[in-house]
Specification:
By secondary structure, the chain is α/β, with parallel strands linked by helices. The chain has 2 domains: 203 residues, 3-Layer(aba) Sandwich (Rossmann fold), CATH 3.40.50; 69 residues, Orthogonal Bundle (Helicase, Ruva Protein, domain 3). It has 12 helices and 9 strands. A 7-stranded mixed β-sheet has the order 4-3-2-5-6-9-7. Strands 1-8 form a two-stranded antiparallel ribbon. β3, α4 and β4 form a beta-alpha-beta unit. The longest helix is centred in the C-terminal third of the chain and has 13 residues. The protein is elongated. The N and C termini lie far apart (61 Å). Bound molecules: S-adenosylmethionine (SAM).
Length: 295
């Protein structure tokens, strides 16, 4: 076993799939990474050390898991596909610091599992090549705040990565960018070609790093209301901020007067497009509408 090539090497991956008569399940977003440089770069982007506990989502046949096991203290890997359990049992047998948990990550009670399995020992980092069909729900779930991760390093479709990391004025910048960047520093570490996977997905990918901001300089009065308000402002992307605000509130003349007062106070033109405003400007808008009891 010790002399085996890495699990993620193309030849070994193919041999494992053949021997277990597995074909990658499209419905579960199974695209196995077979580029060893990419794996090393992921480990580096996550700044892993031997003190770190790692949560992995979707170990697949264990290619990334092996790299995580070599560079961290302990890996808890959540895999939904029962058919992969015997494979992981074998491929990861040289690593006694990996525990595979056969659960849907969206159903898992992470605080409880982390308490039981890791004794809440920090640092706790998330590193994963995410199943692309549920990228956004997983990210939103991880960022809910039930567990505070020291950082999150995840591979996703390039388009989604660009939306998460988008800056004001970019085509990709939208409600998801704002809601996530309010609490987190978001960066695209590097891009990955579709050729780095077996089977190759239809789109290119990117590694995104998310790190919780240490201090929110400009806090919003309520995060949930902020998220709902921002989504409302982007309900019709091509329309002006004003038109979207009429959808968030109503079209009464009195409401319009109040809306105009808030925009004037914040020096925001009603003709502006929602994607032109910064995260801080959305915080200001939310807090101002709250102060006059509209939110
Ligand atoms: N980590 C492997 C790699 O990099 O080669 C496989 C990554 S593959 C893109 C995504 C993995 O997530 C698959 O193994 C799939 O079975 C698993 N998966 C899909 N949905 C899941 C869910 N809801 N919870 C946990 N794992 C899931």
């Amino acid at each position: 076993m010790a002399n085996n090539p890495d699990i993620a090497s193309p030849a070994r991956t193919q041999a494992i799939l053949n021997r277990f008569h597995l074909s990658a399940k499209k419905s579960l977003g199974q695209n196995f990474l077979t580029d060893l440089n990419v794996l090393s770069n992921i480990v580096e982007a996550a700044h892993l050390t031997k003190d770190d506990n790692v949560i992995e989502i979707g170990p697949g046949i264990g290619g990334l898991t092996e790299y995580l096991a070599r560079s961290s203290k302990k890996v808890l890997a959540f895999e939904i596909d029962q058919n992969l359990l015997p494979v992981l049992d074998e491929t990861l047998s040289p690593y006694d610091n990996v525990e595979v948990i056969n659960q849907d990550i969206l159903e898992a009670n992470l605080p409880k599992i982390i308490d039981e399995k890791l004794n809440n020992e920090r640092p706790i980092k998330v590193v994963a090549n995410l199943p692309y069909y549920i990228t956004t729900p997983i990210i939103l779930d991880l960022l809910k705040g039930e567990v505070e991760f020291d950082n999150i390093t995840v591979m996703m479709q390039k388009e989604v990565a660009e939306r998460l990391a988008g800056k004001p004025g970019n085509r990709e910048y939208g409600s998801l960018s704002i809601i996530i960047q309010y609490l987190n520093e978001v960066d695209i570490a590097f891009e990955v070609s579709k050729k780095s996977f077996i089977p190759a997905p239809k789109v290119d990918s990117a590694i995104v790093t998310l790190e919780k901001r240490e201090k929110i300089e400009h806090p919003v009065f309520d995060k949930k209301i902020f998220a709902g308000f921002v989504r409302g402002c982007f309900a019709h992307r091509r329309k002006t901020l004003w038109n979207n605000l009429q959808g968030v509130f109503d079209k009464n003349p009195e409401t319009k007067d109040k809306m105009q007062q808030v925009l004037d106070k914040l020096d925001i033109k009603s003709s502006t497009r929602p994607e032109k405003l910064s995260v801080d400007q959305y915080v200001d808008l939310t807090n101002e509408f709250h102060s006059i009891k509209m939110l």
